[in-house]
Every structure is written in C-alpha cells, then in structure tokens.
TrEMBL record:
The gene is ispG. This is 4-hydroxy-3-methylbut-2-en-1-yl diphosphate synthase (flavodoxin). Binds 1 [4Fe-4S] cluster. The lineage of its organism: Bacteria, Bacillati, Bacillota, Erysipelotrichia, Erysipelotrichales. It catalyses: (2E)-4-hydroxy-3-methylbut-2-enyl diphosphate + oxidized [flavodoxin] + H2O + 2 H(+) = 2-C-methyl-D-erythritol 2,4-cyclic diphosphate + reduced [flavodoxin]. Converts 2C-methyl-D-erythritol 2,4-cyclodiphosphate (ME-2,4cPP) into 1-hydroxy-2-methyl-2-(E)-butenyl 4-diphosphate. InterPro entries: Dihydropteroate_synth-like_sf (IPR011005), IspG_bac (IPR016425), IspG_bac-typ (IPR004588), IspG_C (IPR058579), IspG_TIM (IPR058578), NO2/SO3_Rdtase_4Fe4S_sf (IPR045854). Pathway: Isoprenoid biosynthesis; isopentenyl diphosphate biosynthesis via DXP pathway; isopentenyl diphosphate from 1-deoxy-D-xylulose 5-phosphate: step 5/6.
Length: 352
C-alpha cells in the first residue's frame, strides 16, 4: 500500500507504540473536556479509539487533572499524552499518575533543577517528551531577530529546547512545528526533517472549522506525507475531536499510507438527478466513520455517469427517479426505492 519511503528517524516508544523507524504514521487527537471529568473523558477517548485514533492527548491544568490520568489509563487502550505548560510539578504528577508521554517545552519550566527533576522522572518511567514549537509564541529575541514567524526562527527555538534535554542525555524526543499558516508549516517541517533525527508530529494549529481545517491541513501536510516526512499527525478542528479522525484517515488513505479505510465516491448532483441524494450520502458517510474496511462505495445521481463509476466500486447505487440500481462489483443486482437505500447499503457493507 505504501508507495514512498518515509524519512527514517530515531525510534521513540510511547507505551506500546514505536514511531520514527517504521512506515506507520500514527493518528492523534486531543480531548476537549477538562481532564478531571474522568468519566466523560474516558467516554470520548473510547469513541475516538473506535474511529481509529491511535494516540490521545489530554490537558493538565492542575493537580486534579493530573490525578485523573491514573483512572483514565485503566479504561483506555491507546497511549495517553499529558499536555503541560510552565509548571514542572504538573509534569511530575502526570508522570507519576501514568502518562505515557508529556508535551512540555523544557525551556519554559524555570530553573535547570526543575528540568532535571522532570527528565529523571521521564527516564525512570520511560516517558518521552514532545517539544512543541508554535509560530505564534516564539521567544521574544527570536521574533525580533526575524521580524515575523519564519521556518528558520522556529527551528532556532526548537534547537534551544532540544539542547536542554540532550545535555541531560535525554533523547526520547518528538518534535512539532505548528502554525495557522499552512505554507509556513510546509516550510518548517521540511527544514526540521533536514535538521533533526527525531520523530515529527505533523499538524496545522488553529486551523478553524471542519472545512477550513481540511483545506489547510491537506495543503500543508499532504505534500509532507508524500515526501515521507512525519511520523504522527493530528488534524486540528474547532469543536468535537470526533470531527478530526475522518479527515486524517482520508488524508492518509489518499496518500496511500493506510488502506483499511472506506472510500466513498459521490457525484456533486446536477439537473439530471431525480432523487434526494444528499441525505443518503450524508448518512452513509457518518456510518463509515467507524468502519475499518478497504471498501469503495459509490453513490451516483443519474444514469449518465452512475453505471460507469459504479462498475469500479465494490458496492454502488446508480440513482434514477426516486430509486436506484444496486450494483456489486460491476454487476447490477436489483432496483431499490430510495426509502430502502441506506438500510440496504449498510447491510451490504457489513457483509463485505
């Protein structure tokens, strides 16, 4: 399935996941519920797991959040990353509670003594650290030096944080370089791949709504994936994290990096369409988000393009006037009314 060789980096192990030295690009997301609300967080993570999420991040804003990690870990099955800013004590609490990885910039937690405490705890528990560089929060001197966020400035910032950990002989590091500007993301990740041998977490930050995020993320991250850059990825979408997983799965499938993802083909409709196609497409699209099969489903609006496209699908509907032909692997099976289309398509998909 994979058509390009991924850039080889240092291997970093997060719980039962090893990234950087293999071809797999791990799908990540982040909970949008305060972590101390344990039951709701667990419920959200389990749903994200079912959708295909492979690594999950939670925020840690206080000790209650840190303590909740222990209970959350008992109920979930994928690596748990604790997101921490500025307070080294929260990092220590999250590591003690069982976080599999922490997201923390070592240059932002005070004295070297504080950093040493965190690094020693990470070494003892085999917990990696993700250093996250954001174009909107670069150090003042770097911003003044370059005048605006640049790829070179973001790399310079990362070098400072990485050097702190490397001086303490800590190299279980993952790096991210995020911006709301997709072209800046593209530039900085390319430069990072040439500069560091650590795994890269891909993402466009503050990408906006489902539509704008899909566009910006595809523009920035698609070329990187095709060039073999990136070891884990999150598509950031405003609102529920459940919106993120289908986008990243489609992106990875389109880049031929995963195959156990359904492919839904649907025509845009036109004046030839004589049935209410959009509700059927929308319901099937929602249904497919939790289906992990390499299957192509075509839902076509009319007899002009429908039969031809349907021939290349595993299961298809070629619509007519308030009805459609059910087609399997190019063979017409039967004619079904629109009222039965969704139910029948789901049945055929489940049996595939």
């Amino acid at each position: 399935m994979i058509t390009m060789k991924r850039t080889e980096t240092r291997a970093v192990t997060i719980k039962n996941v090893s990234m950087g030295h293999n071809e797999h690009v791990y799908i990540q997301s982040m909970c949008n519920i305060k972590t101390e609300k344990t039951e709701k967080v667990i419920e959200q993570i389990l749903e994200l797991e079912e959708m295909g999420c492979e690594i999950i991040r939670v925020s840690c804003m206080d000790q209650n959040d840190a303590l909740a990690i222990k209970e959350i870990q008992k109920a979930i099955h994928i690596p748990l990353v604790a997101d921490i800013h500025f307070d080294y004590r929260l990092a220590l609490a999250c590591i003690e509670a069982g976080a599999d990885k922490i997201r923390l910039n070592p240059g932002n937690i005070g004295s070297k003594e504080n950093v040493i405490k965190v690094v020693n705890a990470c070494k003892e528990k085999h917990v990696p650290i993700r250093i996250g560089i954001n174009s909107g929060s670069l150090e003042k001197d770097i911003h003044e030096k370059y005048g605006k966020p640049t790829a070179e400035g973001m790399i310079e910032s990362a070098k400072r944080h990485v050097a702190i950990l490397e001086e303490l002989d800590f190299k279980d590091i993952v790096l991210s370089f995020k911006s709301s500007d997709p072209l800046l993301c593209l530039d900085v990740y390319r430069l990072a791949a040439q500069t560091f041998d650590y795994p890269l977490h891909l993402g466009v930050t503050e990408a906006g709504t489902t539509m704008t995020s899909a566009i910006k993320s595809s523009l920035a991250l698609g070329p990187l994936l095709l060039e073999g850059i990136g070891n884990t990825i999150r598509i950031s979408v405003n609102g529920s994290p459940q919106k993120e997983i289908p986008i990243v799965k489609d992106l990875l499938k389109s880049c031929r990096l995963i195959d156990q993802v359904p492919n839904l083909i649907a025509c845009p409709t036109c004046g030839r369409t004589q049935w209410d196609m959009e509700p059927v497409v929308n319901e099937i699209e929602q249904y497919l988000q939790k289906i992990n099969k390499n299957i192509t489903i075509a839902i076509m609006g009319c007899a002009v393009n429908g039969p031809g496209e349907a021939k290349h699908a595993d299961i298809a509907i070629a619509g007519g006037k308030n009805e459609g032909l059910l087609i399997k692997r190019g063979k017409i099976i039967e004619k079904i009314p629109q009222s039965q289309m969704v139910t029948r398509l789901k049945k055929e998909i489940e049996a595939f």
